[in-house]
Write a structure and sequence with these properties.
The complex is a heterodimer of chains A (about 325) and B (about 290). Chain A has about 325 residues and is mainly α. Chain A has 15 helices and two strands. In chain B, about 75% of the residues lie in helices and about 5% in strands. A two-stranded antiparallel ribbon of chain B has the order 1-2. The chains are: A mainly alpha (about 325), B mainly alpha (about 290).
Chain lengths: ~325, ~290
């Protein structure tokens, strides 16, 4: 079997296991799986701009929060759930497009700082627009009137669909002219420009994809939790965690981000369960360890060499 | 005239802001690191000021020295032991590393000091000076003067001492500096220590004017971003000027746009500056 066939087979098995989860397991596992797929979506969303294009974006929290509020605001005014999500995607993509036009002139540190502060700006604006968003009080969404089981399943399948679409888009992008162009930009943007790649257009497409998918995840998250507040959905951790996941799984790869999300969240969950008071501190420690010891990703880590060393040492 | 009151407020705020930003700017300029930890350093400096006053009765303006030394030492150890390992890597890696360290430090401070807001309430306040219709809170004014003295001392250190010249040399050409016999890793650690010392000193000065909680760090940090870009990354006089401008911006911005949009206004200025004057108002300089 070729590598591609093995990957495809693993993907089918993984998807089958996931789809059977609602039948086989309880609400806790289902909730965990839904969170994992949400973060996998965010990681893949970041991968378009950060992994493929090599632009250090810290803006995922901004798009996630914007999507959450865009969806929640219209849903609270009676728009059906699915239409509210579509609205969140449209708003998120448009905002990312407009922002991309401005910010993608910057590179490196300047781009990082500029994207980092966008979430803070949106948080302050959301806090200020009390009439529309409820301000710091947060926003309650209409209750579905379903039991916890049905609700859990509905959002599990919705998040599964979103993650699957994001993965498919990642695959298509990676195997298209766009993906090739983005890779050229990552390696040497000036050279890519000279050989005739429309770098501005490509970068904006990547950034828009990133914003659109993150906003979609935000929209789903808002209806799922039923209550959002600015400091929750614009949390900088929503920008940091997806990057860590991609670093863990492998930058600019197709399956890396999703895999990194699973690995990271398993670690995160273990930390949560055991160190409630020290959770953020231990999370910080986890981040430091991952950055120091696995800078090129779990997939790139040479496990065989490690095993060999152990064997030869004994 | 009310205009002069805002002007004075802006100036007084500006001095403290300048002090916050110099260390951050120095580290960014020399090490190419956006140091998220800087905000937590300021907060710890403020706690040193607060506890020295409540427990030992030492005035926060004196604690500036201890806070500077403690945070400088902490900065030195953190850089030498941890950050130096990834210092040459991309902004993604270094920024996330300092973010992880910030989470750890904030959590430690939260456990140690609780989430309550604290502030030094001086028994013998210097009071308020009234000139015409302008009121000046003297404690804050003195803090601002000390802030500028510290910035001036840092500038002298960069100009006149061999450590300072080594830092400048490493900033402009790491390889060449290393060939001239400069220990780059140690120079990085000293730079980070200086950044930490400025943050600690600034924190102790702030403790007289602003209520502090373990989670105040990001607020100070975001101000440092803007000031640093305003004045030019890595420039000490730039950070001083940037701090003053930022103080004015906040003071007058609150009048015209409302205090709740202060950060938005500052960040819009930041993004415009990044686009039109990426090297800041004073440009790249050898300090």
């Amino acid at each position: 079997m070729t590598k591609a066939q093995t990957q495809f087979l693993l993907l089918i098995v993984g998807a089958a296991v996931l789809l059977l989860l609602p039948v086989m397991s309880g609400n806790y596992t289902l909730r965990l799986a839904t969170i994992m797929m949400m973060y996998a979506t965010l990681a893949m969303a970041w991968n378009f701009i950060g992994g493929f294009t090599g632009y250090p974006s810290f803006g995922i929290a901004a798009f996630f929060g914007l999507g959450a509020y865009a969806g929640a605001v219209v849903q609270a005014r009676g728009v059906p759930v699915v239409l509210a999500w579509a609205f969140a995607i449209v708003i998120g993509s448009l905002f990312a497009y407009a922002l991309g036009l401005i910010l993608l002139r910057l590179r490196g540190h300047a781009f990082a700082i500029a994207t980092l502060v966008i979430a803070e700006v949106l948080r302050e604006l959301t806090n200020g627009m009390t009439d529309l968003t409820g301000g710091g009080m947060g926003l309650n969404l209409p209750f579905f009137g379903w039991g916890p089981d049905a609700l859990g399943r509905f959002f599990f399948y919705a998040m599964f669909a979103l993650a699957a679409i994001t993965l498919a888009t990642t695959y298509i992008v990676a195997h298209s002219r766009l993906g090739f162009g983005l890779n050229c930009i990552k390696q040497n943007e000036d050279a890519a420009d000279i050989v005739g790649i429309n770098t501005t257009r490509y970068k904006i497409i990547a950034f828009t994809l990133s914003g659109g998918f993150a906003a979609a995840a935000g929209g789903l998250y808002a209806s799922w939790t039923g209550y959002i507040e600015p400091s929750d959905v614009y949390d900088i951790l929503f920008s940091i965690k997806p990057i860590l996941m991609v670093l863990l799984g492998g930058m600019g790869t197709i399956f890396g981000p999703a895999l990194g999300a699973v690995v990271f969240l398993v670690l995160d969950e273990i930390v949560w369960r055991n160190f409630l008071q020290l959770h953020t501190g231990i999370l910080g420690l986890l981040i430091v360890i991952l950055i120091l010891f696995l800078p090129a990703g779990v997939l790139s880590f040479d496990w065989r060499a490690l095993l060999k060393k152990k064997v030869s040492a004994t | 005239m009310i205009f002069f009151q805002y002007l004075v407020n802006g100036l007084i705020l500006g001095g403290l802001y300048a002090c916050i930003a110099t260390g951050f700017s120095l580290v960014w300029g020399v090490l190419s690191i956006i140091n998220i930890l800087h905000g937590s350093f300021i907060v710890l400096g403020a706690y040193i000021g607060i506890f020295s006053y409540t427990m030992l009765g030492i005035h926060p303006f004196v604690s500036v020295i201890t806070a500077g030394i403690v945070l400088g030492a902490l900065g030195y150890v953190v850089q030498l032991g941890i950050i130096n390992r990834v210092v040459a890597q991309s902004v993604l890696v270094t920024l996330i590393l300092t973010f992880g360290l910030e989470l750890m430090m904030n959590n430690a401070m939260l456990v140690a000091f609780t989430a309550d807001y604290r502030k030094v309430i001086l028994e013998k306040s210097l009071g308020v000076l009234e000139i015409g219709n302008v009121f000046i809170a003297m404690d804050r004014a003195v803090a601002t003067v000390i802030a500028f003295v510290l910035i001036f001392l840092l500038w002298l250190l960069m100009r006149l001492t061999s450590i300072g010249r080594a830092i400048v040399a490493v900033r402009f050409d790491r390889e060449a500096a290393s060939l001239m016999g400069i220990d780059v890793k140690k120079t990085y650690a000293i730079t980070f220590a200086l950044g930490g010392a400025m943050a600690g000193a600034a924190g102790s000065l702030m403790s007289v004017s602003f209520p502090i909680s373990p989670l105040s760090g990001p607020l100070f940090l975001s101000k440092a971003f803007v000031i640093c870009i305003l004045g030019g990354v890595g420039s000490v006089p730039g950070a001083a000027l940037g701090g003053l401008i930022f103080g004015m911006l906040e003071s007058f911005g609150a009048v015209f746009f409302g205090a709740e949009y202060a950060l938005t206004l500052a960040f819009i200025v930041l993004i415009i500056l990044l686009l039109v004057r990426p090297h800041g108002l004073l440009g790249v300089k050898g300090f």
